[in-house]
């Protein structure tokens, strides 16, 4: 009962978008769905950072193109000053020039505004559980970009790097393939709690901070090969 109730507990969300109609529409949409509670709305990045300081939300749904302080800079400030708050980008733009700066700034999710309400709620809860809240198209672009950038010869992984155990390495490879904690648990026939323990251990050994870094690390160590064709 406790775990089920924990999963159903509403996530406290701040919505940041400079277009009033869009912002109010997102707030109204989320208000109709279970699993989220909108506690504030911001018209630009400066206001978003201020509201996070005042309200301590679980997640900010962040637009990118905003006046005064854009979404990337606001994300950077929020993650530096209020690490307990996660950021999911919700934007019209899915190009590399928008995606990668936002992820480097600390966003843990990235959706385009054609995402449905259920998809937004799933992304919010995914980042709170430690998964990446990326739409399939964004995850594909991320993997393609990493494949290109890691195309140089990488050290052969004859043995697991950085003291990782065989199971930790296996979990890392599955993360790089885009599987969620629940999907990894099903694949390996273990509990989600066990998967989280393996992830915590491999992050500690490698110095990784999130799943985006884990994907890059796996490619760099030759644990995952770029897709062909």
Layout of helices and strands:
Layout: H1 2-8, E1 11-16, H2 20-31, E2 36-42, H3 45-55, E3 59-62, H4 71-81, E4 86-91, H5 96-105, E5 109-112, H6 117-128, E6 133-134, H7 136-149, H8 166-176, H9 181-188, H10 192-206, H11 211-220
Parallel strand pairs: 1-2, 1-3, 3-4, 4-5, 5-6
Helix pairs in contact: 3-4, 4-5, 8-10, 8-11, 9-10
Structure description:
By secondary structure, this protein is of the alpha/beta class. It has eleven helices and six strands. Helices cover 53% and strands 13% of the residues. It has a six-stranded parallel sheet with strand order 2-1-3-4-5-6, sandwiched between helices. Strand 5, helix 6 and strand 6 (133-134) form a beta-alpha-beta unit. The protein is globular. 37% of the residues are buried. The model is unreliable at 1-7 and 150-158 (pLDDT under 50).
Largest sheet, in brief, is: 6 strands, parallel
Going across the biggest sheet, name each strand in turn.
2-1-3-4-5-6
N-to-C SSE series?
HEHEHEHEHEHEHHHHH
Structural class: alpha/beta
Q: What does the overall shape look like? A: globular
Mean pLDDT score: 82
User: How many helical stretches?
Assistant: 11
According to DSSP, the number of beta strands is 6
- As a percent range, the share of helical residues equals 40-55%
Please supply descriptive tags for the structure shown above.
about 230 residues, 6-stranded parallel sheet, 11 helices, about 55% helix
Overview in brief:
Helices cover 53% and strands 13% of the residues. It is an alpha/beta fold and 229 residues long.
